[in-house]
From TrEMBL:
Region (Disordered): 225-245
Domain Alpha-2-macroglobulin bait region: 359-507
InterPro entries: A2M_N_BRD, Bact_A2M_MG5, Bact_A2M_MG6, MG2, YfhM-like
Transcription regulation among keywords: no
Coiled coil location: none
Protein name: Lipoprotein
Keywords: Lipoprotein
GO molecular function list: endopeptidase inhibitor activity
Keyword Lipoprotein included in the entry's annotation: yes
Organism: Pseudomonas cannabina
C-alpha cells in the first residue's frame, strides 16, 4: 500500500481553498494504471491509500495531478521488490589524511537494528585508490598533484574477516602506493553479511597526502570535466583558452584543512606538450597511427605567496597543448594542470553549444521581505552592455538595460509584493563588443543567482519526545511540541506522524525534505 499525503498550497506556500484534484497513476511504461479524484478532509488535508496490483511492474511510477490550470504537477515514487535491512554498519578511518607509506587503519562496527551486536558476522570488502585532483574541499577548482604521475590507480580485494563478540573489527590495508607524490583517495567499500538476510554495503573515503602542504593551481579560464570515484581523475578534460590572450593561473599553498600557507621561491613552469604523429603498418593490424611525445620547458618563474593569500601568474601561449607545473621548493612536491590554447580543430565545444563565460552576481542580503529593494553587484569577465532580469518559471518579471565596467557595478532591484514565489532568479547577460582592428571577437557572459525570499517568521520548530525502545504490537506514546519562530506557541497545529522501518530508509537513502531549503 502506498500512503499518499498532500497539502494544497500556492507559490508562496500559503493555504488555499481545497478543491477536488484529478490524479493519474502512471506505470513505468508510461501507461495509465488508474485515475481517481482526490478530495481533502475538513481541515484541507489530502490522504489516499493507493493499492498497486500484486503483479504491478517494478520501477519508477508517476502521479500526475490536474488542478485545472493547465499545468500538471508530477510526483514520482518507486515500486520495488526488497528485503529491508536488518543490520547497521559503521566505518571509521583517520580524521586527517594519512601518509602514502602508512597502512590505513579502519575501525568497523556492526550491529542489528534491534540493538544486538553483529557477533560472528562475516565482512567482505574492496579498496579502490584513485588520484585526488581537487584535494581540498574549501578550495574548489584548484588542482593538486602531478597529472603526469603514473601508477596511482589500485584495486584491491580484501580477505573476509569475522566480527568479534562485540561486533567489532579493525581492518588494516597494506599500502601499495608508498611512492606516491600526489594526493590520493582510498575508497573502502565494505559489506556485512547476514545469514538468511541481505548484506549491507557502506563506503568510506580516506584521503592520502604525500606532505603536510601541497601547491595547488587553478586555471582562470575554461573548465575541466571528470568522472566518478572509480575513474582515474588524472584523465580529466583539459581546460581551454579562447585564444584571446595569455593564459592566467592562480597559485596557492595549502594544507588538507584548506588553510592558505606562506611559501617563498615557488617555481612555476610552462611546458609545451608536443606530439609528433606517424603512421605504421603491420600485417596483423593494418595501418595505425602512433606518436612520439616531447616536453619542452618554455618558461619558468618564481613566486612568493603570502599567508592567507594566493598568487597569480600568466604566460603567453600559442595554439596547442600545454602543461603548467608548480613546485614547492621546501618539499619538492609538484602539482600540474593540462590546458589547450586556442580552439581545437574538431569542435571547441565537444559537440555542444558554445559555453558563455560567467558573470559573477552577489546580493547584499541572504533573503528579502516583500517590497524590499535588493542590491545586486554584477561583475563581468569584461566590460560590456546587456540586461539584468528577474525571472520565474513563468518568464521575466522585471528587466533593465545595463552598461557594466570591467570592475563591476551595483544595481538596485525593487521587489514587487506580487512576486510572492520562490522560483525567482536574478539573471545577467553581458555582451563584450568586438573590435576588428584588434582582432577581438564579441563575447557573451551569463550569470544566474537565486533570489531568496525571507519566510523565517513562518517556520515552526518541532520537537518529538519518544521512548528509547518500543515493544512490537504495543501502542507507542509520543510527545510533540511546536513553537513559532518568535518562541510563542501556535494556537492550533495539525501534526502527521509516520513510523517507517529504518531498514527501508537505509536502502533508499531517503533524506527528510527541508521545506526551507
Amino acid at each position: 500500500t502506498v500512503l499518499l499525503n498532500g497539502l494544497l498550497r500556492d507559490s508562496d506556500g500559503k493555504h488555499v481553498k481545497p478543491q477536488p484534484i484529478t490524479v493519474e497513476v502512471r506505470r513505468p511504461d508510461d501507461q495509465v494504471s488508474r485515475k481517481f479524484v482526490w478530495e481533502a478532509d475538513s481541515s484541507g488535508f489530502y490522504q489516499y491509500q493507493l493499492q498497486p496490483a500484486e503483479e504491478a511492474p517494478t520501477g519508477r511510477w508517476q502521479l500526475v495531478f490536474d488542478l485545472g490550470d493547465g499545468k500538471p504537477q508530477l510526483y514520482e515514487f518507486k515500486v520495488e521488490d526488497f528485503l529491508p535491512e536488518r543490520l547497521a554498519l559503521e566505518l571509521k578511518g583517520s580524521d586527517t589524511p594519512v601518509a602514502p607509506a602508512d597502512d590505513p587503519q579502519f575501525d568497523i562496527t556492526g550491529r542489528y537494528l534491534y540493538g544486538a551486536p553483529a557477533s560472528g558476522n562475516s565482512l567482505t570488502g574492496q579498496v579502490y585508490v584513485r588520484p585526488l585532483r581537487e584535494a581540498v574541499a574549501k578550495l574548489p577548482g584548484y588542482q593538486f598533484g602531478s597529472i603526469t604521475e603514473a601508477d596511482l590507480k589500485h584495486d584491491l580485494e580484501l580477505e573476509p574477516v569475522t566480527l568479534d563478540a562485540e561486533g567489532h573489527t579493525t581492518l588494516s590495508v597494506k599500502t601499495e602506493w608508498a611512492a606516491a607524490k600526489s594526493p590520493l583517495q582510498l575508497i573502502l567499500q565494505a559489506s556485512l553479511q547476514e545469514s538468511g538476510g541481505r548484506p549491507i554495503t557502506r563506503r568510506l573515503v580516506q584521503p592520502i597526502w604525500p606532505a603536510e602542504q601541497l601547491p595547488g593551481v587553478r586555471a582562470l579560464f575554461g573548465s575541466s570535466t571528470g568522472g566518478d570515484d572509480y575513474d582515474d581523475e588524472a584523465s580529466k578534460g583539459e581546460a581551454q583558452t579562447n585564444g584571446d590572450g595569455p593564459a592566467e593561473f592562480e597559485i596557492v599553498m595549502a594544507d588538507a584543512a584548506g588553510n592558505k600557507l606562506a611559501a617563498d621561491n615557488v617555481k612555476v613552469r610552462l611546458i609545451r606538450e608536443r606530439r609528433d604523429y606517424y603512421w605504421n603498418y603491420s600485417a596483423d593490424d593494418g595501418w595505425s597511427y602512433h606518436f612520439n611525445e616531447k616536453f619542452l620547458n618554455l618558461n619558468e618563474e618564481t613566486l612568493n605567496i603570502s599567508k592567507d593569500s594566493t598568487a597569480r601568474i600568466s604566460f603567453p601561449v600559442e595554439w596547442g597543448p600545454y602543461r603548467v607545473e608548480v613546485e614547492d621548493p621546501a618539499t619538492g612536491m609538484i602539482s600540474s594542470l593540462r590546458f589547450w590554447a586556442g580552439y581545437r580543430w574538431q569542435d571547441n565545444t565537444d559537440g555542444g553549444a558554445v559555453r558563455p563565460d560567467q558573470v559573477k552576481l552577489a546580493l547584499d542580503k541572504p533573503a528579502y521581505n516583500d517590497g524590499d529593494t535588493a542590491t545586486v553587484t554584477v561583475t563581468p569577465p569584461a566590460a560590456g552592455k546587456g540586461y539584468l532580469l528577474i525571472e520565474s518559471s513563468e518568464g521575466p518579471l522585471w528587466w533593465k538595460e545595463i552598461d557594466v565596467p570591467a570592475e563591476g557595478k551595483s544595481y538596485e532591484i525593487p521587489l514587487d509584493k506580487q512576486w510572492a514565489r520562490h522560483d525567482l532568479y536574478v539573471t545577467a547577460l553581458v555582451i563584450r563588443p568586438g573590435e576588428r582592428k584588434a582582432n577581438i571577437t564579441p563575447k557573451r557572459a551569463v550569470g544566474v543567482l537565486h533570489l531568496p525570499l525571507d519566510r523565517a517568521p513562518r517556520k515552526l520548530a518541532l520537537t518529538v519526545t519518544a521512548p528509547e525502545k518500543m515493544r512490537p504490537k504495543q501502542p507507542l506514546t509520543l510527545k510533540v511540541a511546536a513553537k513559532n519562530a518568535d518562541g510563542s506557541v501556535p494556537k492550533q497545529v495539525h501534526v502527521l506522524v509516520s513510523a517507517v522501518d529504518v531498514g527501508i530508509l537505509n536502502i533508499t537513502r531517503y533524506a527528510t525534505p527541508d521545506p526551507f531549503a
